[in-house]
Design a protein that fits this description.
seven-stranded mixed β-sheet; binds magnesium ion; binds guanosine-5'-diphosphate; Rossmann fold; eight-stranded antiparallel β-sheet; single chain; 16 helices; alpha+beta
């Protein structure tokens, strides 16, 4: 690949709902740019971007992939992000390094859930956006309906630059509004010509609103326009480019990826109107605990951000990074500011899907892969020695679906921890939790498909088989009444025996107050040195599980009497006496099963609120309140038993048409209703 300047680079990510045609469009763009000599098809499993075995099997993208190619003096770094909600982590990573988010929208299905979710993410990051209205060759495709939906959902910044010619099977080309030129296509090749009469009227109308949309974002132009001066196509393009770079104007192009209609025009938009990495303004770093804005400096010191790590079967670990400032060269030494470790950039690579091309250097704004940086993780910053700055982490919605995993064999278990850490580095949208109370390793994922593909990857890429099992809820128990009992331990069958007796009174404490041991022994009924053993026996039993079989909490135990034997009594005797006396007393003190309750914040579209509230009631939730959230959204606050949330990530998605999300954190413990308690206790003791 030829050396380029930052101004010639275009970092573009294809985003949008699954199935809209992103991977197919990537294929068509590569082909139109001459970077490939054939057009792969997702159904045939031979596209450049879906190069992972599982992606080909499922005919869907699951990880972000990169293809770099040249087009008319530009270098395009094209990222293809998955559209399936479970792989939102990949979208978040790609959005962090792209300078233009290109939304691929099916003109048949219109604006879909993931389009909205991703648009909000891009808007929150202030990333320039454009739209490719795809599948106009399909039956029921509608330019007007989709344009209206886009303007209704995303506002007046939507600027249609083209109109389709024909519809359905007759869809044959596009009219470029800025230049009033029609392009008709035959097998991907365009022929320019005058605007056909059947489109002329609509062209007139849409062109006027387009010009108004563009001049509205530029005061000088607006003033002249109001005085009757209509700007030229070039001036409009310039103003449009500025509006795009400020993320205020969102150009819309049309076409068909499979029919290769409009793809060359899109390449033109990316290069002529799309921003370069030096057009999009400063980036943020944390230095000395403070966030500061930094302008990219092409001739400055090198600074790079690792946005993705992949375990590659050819080169081992592959770190994908963006050069935020300066240049990086083969064999440069930088510092990983998370570890302060020295990092030698030995093998620089440019990618085209699975294909790797060696590179000598990368300039500001460029994206590349570097092999074998084993100690470097996703989200790391590579900086010069003595410059410990950190680029903020990629923000990913917290994974909400838990699954307990267990190694299939002992051999798997030996490799599990290392394999899971490599998996998490490759996919930071997962989270691993070791629950010491239930003794389970819990893998948190974004959804069922994400979970399955992660377990698949553990096997396929890291050679470890795991089984999944139901997540155990960390139940606890306490008592609701007071009672007394005597713990006796007596073993006296000749020689040195064991003997200890303690009288215990148990009483409930307020939730969360914990365990209190009261030494009310008088008159040496139990020698001083053995009283801690009574307490120890009780504490052990509380940890191991009380009469219901669960850890005991919030109990006061008073040891008020006892008996001992001068020879046979010892610590062990009184520990055992404490254990049995405690259990017996609790048995008589109305033991209660407690369940963890989570504080849940749920964000749903207003129209789903009723169903979600009804469902919360059905899962024993206590709604604390609702309030208006972002436009068209409601925030619901509730306390919900954790046991009822294990599959909530999946249920909420279907209740809210895929638009709802929630966070949950442990809040307190509450008694389990009688009928449910019996079931839980029976299951636990059957296990
Ligand atoms: N008719 C038609 N089908 C298309 C077009 N673009 C993509 N497809 C089909 O839509 C399906 C999903 O495409 P894909 O590229 O995987 O979508 P992605 O999930 O957004 O990456 C595949 O069957 C494609 O062949 C198009 O312009 N017209
Ligand atoms: Mg795809």
């Amino acid at each position: 690949m030829r050396a380029v300047t930052p101004a010639q680079i275009r970092n573009v990510v294809l985003v949008g709902h699954g199935g809209a045609g992103k991977t197919t469009l990537a294929e068509a763009l590569l082909h139109a740019a001459g970077a490939t000599n054939r057009l792969g098809r997702v159904e045939d499993g031979n596209t450049v971007m879906d190069h992972d075995a599982e992606e080909r099997e499922r005919a869907m993208s699951m990880t972000v992939s990169l293809a770099q190619f040249e087009w008319e003096d530009h270098k395009v770094n094209l990222l293809d992000a998955p559209g399936f909600p479970d792989f939102i982590g990949e979208v978040a990573a790609a959005l962090r390094v792209a300078d233009l988010a290109l939304f691929v929208i099916s003109a048949v299905d219109g604006v879909e859930v993931q389009t909205e979710v991703t648009w909000r993410m891009a808007a929150a990051l202030g990333i320039p956006r454009a739209i490719f209205l795809n599948k106009l060759d399909r039956e029921r495709a509608s330019f007007d309906t989709t344009l209206a939906q886009l303007q209704e959902r995303f506002g007046s910044g939507i600027a249609p630059l083209q109109l389709p010619i024909g519809a359905d099977a007759d869809f044959s080309g596009v009219v470029d509004l800025l230049t009033a030129t029609a392009y008709r296509y035959r097998e991907g090749t365009a022929e320019a010509g005058p605007v056909p009469p059947e489109v002329a009227e609509l062209e007139e109308q849409v062109r006027e609103s387009l010009v108004e949309g563009i001049v509205a974002a530029d005061d000088d132009l607006l003033e002249k326009y109001l005085e009757g001066e209509v700007p030229s196509a070039d001036v409009l393009s310039g103003a449009l480019a500025a509006g795009v770079a400020r993320a205020e104007v969102f150009p819309l192009l049309c076409g068909s990826a499979t029919q290769q209609v409009g793809v060359d025009r899109l390449l033109g938009l990316i290069c002529e109107i799309g921003p370069s990495p030096v057009d999009v303004g400063p980036f943020t770093v944390i230095a000395g605990g403070e966030a500061i804005e930094v302008e990219p400096e092409p001739e400055g010191e090198p600074l790079a951000f690792v946005f993705k790590s992949v375990a590659d079967r050819h080169v081992g670990q592959l770190s994908m990074l963006k050069v935020l400032s300066g240049h990086v060269h083969h064999d440069d030494h930088l510092v990983d500011t998370r570890t302060s470790g020295d990092v030698r950039l030995h093998t620089l690579l440019f990618l085209k899907g699975a294909e790797q091309v060696h590179a000598d250097e990368a300039v500001t704004g460029d994206i590349l892969a570097v092999a074998k940086l084993t100690d470097v993780h996703t989200n790391d910053t590579l900086a010069p020695k003595g410059k410990p700055v950190v680029v903020p982490q990629i923000e990913i919605p917290p994974p909400a679906l838990p699954a307990a995993i267990r190694a299939h064999t002992q051999a798997d278990d030996d490799k599990l921890s290392n394999a899971v850490h490599r998996l998490l580095d490759e996919d930071p949208s997962l989270r691993l939790e070791r629950n010491e109370e239930t003794h389970q390793t819990v893998l948190w994922s974004q959804g069922e498909t994400h979970l399955r593909s992660s377990i698949d990857k553990l096997q396929r890429k890291f050679g470890v088989s795991v089984d999944t099992e139901e997540v155990h809820v960390a139940y606890r128990e306490t008592i609701s009444g007071s009672a007394e009992a005597e713990g006796r331990h007596k073993k006296q069958s000749g020689g040195r025996g064991q003997y200890g007796v303690c009288s215990l009174r148990v009483a409930p404490r307020t939730r969360g107050e914990g365990f209190e041991f009261v030494d009310a022994i008088v008159g040496g009924a139990i020698p001083r040195q053995y009283i801690p053993a009574v307490e120890k026996g009780i504490a052990e039993t509380m940890a191991e599980g009380g009469v219901l079989g669960f850890p005991v909490v919030d109990v006061q135990v008073t040891c008020y009497d006892g008996k001992y034997h001068a020879v046979d009594s010892d610590e062990m005797s009184f520990k055992i006496a404490g254990r049995s006396g405690f259990k017996e007393a609790c048995q008589k003190a109305s033991p209660v099963l407690l369940e963890p309750i989570s504080r849940v914040e749920i964000i749903v579209p207003t129209e789903s609120q009723g169903d979600v509230l009804g469902d919360l009631n059905a899962r024993r939730g206590r709604v604390q309140g609702t309030e208006a959230g972002n436009e068209g959204e409601q925030l619901i606050l509730a306390y919900v038993p954790t046991a009822e949330l294990l599959r909530y990530a999946i249920d909420l998605r279907s209740l809210s048409g895929g638009r709802g999300h929630f966070t949950a954190e442990h809040d307190h413990y509450d008694p389990v209703p009688g009928h449910l308690a019996e079931k839980v206790i029976a299951e636990a003791n059957a296990g």
